[in-house]
Amino acid sequence: MQQSKTSDVQKWFPSEDGNAAKRSEFLSLIEQLIRGVDDLKHPDQVNLKGEKNREGLFYEKLISESKIPVSGRPMEDVNEELLKLLHSHPYHTKYFFTNILPMASIPGILGMLTAFMVNGNNLWDVYGPAGAEAEVKVTAMMSKLAGYDAETSGGYTTWGGQGAVYTGLRIAIAKMSPSALKEGVPGNFYAFCSEAAHYSLYKSMEATGLGSDRLIKVKTHLDHSMDTDDLRKKMREVCENGGIPVYIVATTGTTDAIGIDDVRAVRSAAEEIAGDFDLPVPHIHADSALGGFFAFFNDYDVDENALSFSPGVLGMIKAIKDKMQHLHEADSLCFDFQKLGQTPYVTSLFLVKNANDLKRIDLDPEETPYVGHRGYGDYHTGYTLECSRMASSISMYSALMAFGREGYQKLLGQFLEVNLHFREQLIRRIPQADIMNPDNHGMSTLFRIYPEGAPRFADEISGQCTVQELERNNRLNEKLFEKLGANRDKMFFGDTKKHLLAGTREGAEIPLYVSKFFVISPYTLPEHVPQIIDYLKENIEDVCRQFETVTVMK
Ligand SMILES: *Cc1c(COP(=O)(O)O)cnc(C)c1O
C-alpha cells in the first residue's frame, strides 16, 4: 500500500478520509473544552469560576499586549487560552434572571457543529445544500406553527430579530414603490410601531434612509400592547398631510414586559385607514422575535391539559393563545431561535406569508455574476441583505426535532410556573415592591420599589404625581440596580431605565426605572423562588434603609 503524503499544514484540519487517528485527536480537543468548562461551573452562583479583573485599564492593556504569534501554538495550549476567556463568564445557572439571554441547548450546539463540519455557504444550494435543505424544512415547520400556508410562504435565516424588522421594511418599501429600489426611497413614507416596540425599527428607518423622524410611535395600553385607536388616529394624521403609511410593526411579545399586540386588530385598523385614503394596506410585520415561540401553545388543549400544567400556568396559556392565534394575520414575522428556541447565536428566522414578497427585493440576475441563475442549483438567496450566510437553519432544525412541540411546551410552561411563584411571593413578602406588568403573561416580571409613604405605581400611572416624586422613586430604584448589579455574580437580575413614560402634574413625561426578573434558565425551579425572594428582600430593605436615612439628613 502506498503511504499517502501528508503536509504540515494539514494538522489544523479535520481528516479528508475519516481516519480514526484524526478523529480521536479532534474528539479529545473537544473533550478538553467541554471538560474545561465543566471544571469552571459553580451551580450556586451565576459566574463561572476563575479570576477576571476588568477594572482599571483592562481593555487598554489587551490592546497593547495583543499580537499574532509568529509560530502557532499547539491546539491544547490554545484551548487553555480559550478557556481563560470564559473565566468568570456569566453562566445560565438557576440564579440567572437577566433579559432574554438563554443557554444554548445540546441539540442547538450539535446542529451548529453539523453545519461547521461541512462549512457550506447558505447563499446558494450549490455551495451549501445542507443549509438550504434545513432552511426550507425549518421555514415550512415554523410557517405551519404560525398558521401560514407553507406552500405559499417563504423565509430564510438572518442576523437577528433586527434583521427581520429591517427586511420587513425593505419589502414594505418595495411593495409601495417598486421603483424605490433603483431610484431611492420616497420621502413621504412612514412606519409605525408602539412605544413598547424594540428599537430595531428605529435603526431600520435610519438605515433605509427614511430617517427616524418618519417613525411614528403609537401609544400602548397598560398591558403594553398597541392602542389601535391611537394607531388609527396617527395613520390618519399622516395621510391627511400627504404621507403614506408603508409599514406597521406589531410587537408580539415586547422585550421587557412581554406585551402582545393583537395583530388582527392592527390589521383591521390598517385596512380601514388605507381604505379611507384609497391607499394600499401597509405591510404588517409581527415582531415575534421573542414571543413567536408562544405559538407552541396555539394547539395546546387547555381542557385536556395533557402536560398537567397548574391552573395558574393554564390561565397564562389561555391569555397568550388569545393573542398569538392571530399571528398569521401578519405579512411577515420572525422567530429568534437564540431567544426562546434554545439555539446559539445567531439563529433568527424571517418568515413571509407570501414568498413572492421576497422577489420584490431580489437582485437582478445580471447583478449576481458569481452565483445562482445557472442551469444548476435551484436555491439562491439573492434577496438577503447578507451575501455569504451561515447555515444556522441546521441548528434550528436540530432543536425542533429534539424538543418537539411538547418539549417546547414543557420548557415554556416551566418558565411560566417559576414566574408565577415569583410574582405571588414578591407581592406577599416584599411590601416595598409593585409589579409593573401584572397583566402580561410570560416569563418576565418587572418590579419597582417605593420609599415608605411615597406614591405607588397606581398613582404614578394616573399622571397625578409630581416630577420630583417620580424622580425620587427612580433614584431609589437606581440604588437597587447598583446594589443588585454589584452582586450580580450571586443572582443576575435585569433592569431598565425606560420602562414606560408616566405623565406628571407638570405635564412632563418621566420614564420609570424598573428591575427585571426574567426566567430563562432551565435550572430555575419553583422551589428556588423562596431563596430568590429572601435575597431580594434583604437587598431592598438595605437600600430603603439607607435611602431614608439620607433623605432624613437632607
Ligand atoms: C430581541 C428582540 C429584537 C432584536 O433581535 P436580535 O436577534 O437581537 O437582533 C427585536 N424585537 C424584539 C421584540 C426583540 O425581543
Automatic annotation (TrEMBL):
Family matches, as Gene3D superfamilies: Aspartate Aminotransferase, domain 1, Type I PLP-dependent aspartate aminotransferase-like (Major domain)
Molecular-function annotations in GO: aromatic-L-amino-acid decarboxylase activity; pyridoxal phosphate binding
GO biological processes: carboxylic acid metabolic process
UniProtKB keywords: Decarboxylase, Lyase, Pyridoxal phosphate
Cofactor: pyridoxal 5'-phosphate
Keyword Signal belongs to the record: no
One GO cellular component term: cytoplasm
Modified positions (N6-(pyridoxal phosphate)lysine) in chain numbering: 339
Protein family according to the UniProt entry: Belongs to the group II decarboxylase family.
The protein, known as: Pyridoxal phosphate-dependent decarboxylase
Lineage summary: Bacteria, Bacillati, Bacillota, Bacilli, Bacillales
